[in-house]
Amino acid sequence: MKAFGFILRAASGENVRLDEDAMMREAARLGFSWSATFFEDDRREGNYIRMVSRIMREGVDAVFLPAVDHMSEQDIEVMATHCDVYCLAEGRRHPRAVGDRSA
Predict the structure, then answer these.
(1) Cα 81-29-9 angle, rounded to 5 deg
(2) Staple partner for 3: which of 7, 58, 62, 79, CB 3.0–4.6 Å?
(3) pLDDT at 101 over 80
(4) pLDDT at position 100, please?
């Protein structure tokens, strides 16, 4: 099972690397193979769009977020049409919509 991580730099502040490490550890604990971390800047959306494109192209099983404030609720719902979304700080898992495996 393949996983990506997504970090909004403004939300992590100085903890970017700590957040990435925590996501990678949790993914490994759950049996995922870490593939990439995408870092987003508030001023542009390039890495978010690249991540979504790769999810659709490669069939990623999960996206990990350090916390829910790294992605809008709407984006989390959209992401969950393609893969599971894990929000570590809140201990929340948004499961992929049943029967949906868009690629």
Answers:
(1) 60
(2) 62
(3) no
(4) 47
Work out the end-to-end distance of the chain between its first and last CA atoms, rounded to an integer number of angstroms: 15
Above pLDDT 70, what percent of the chain?
Answer: 90
pLDDT band at 96 (very low <50, low <70, confident <90, very high): very high
d(CA 64, CA 84): 8
Topology given in CATH for the domain delimited by 2-94: Rossmann fold (3.40.50)
Tokens 């959209």: give the residue: 78
Is 102 in contact with 81 (CB distance < 8 Å)?
A: yes
Q: Which residue's entry shows tokens 């970090």?
A: 7
DSSP the chain: -EEEEEEEHHHHGGGHHHHHHHHHHHHHHTTPEEEEEEEE-TT--HHHHHHHHHHHHHT--EEEESSGGGS-HHHHHHHTTTSEEEETTTTEEEPPPTT----
In this prediction, residue 44 carries a pLDDT of 62
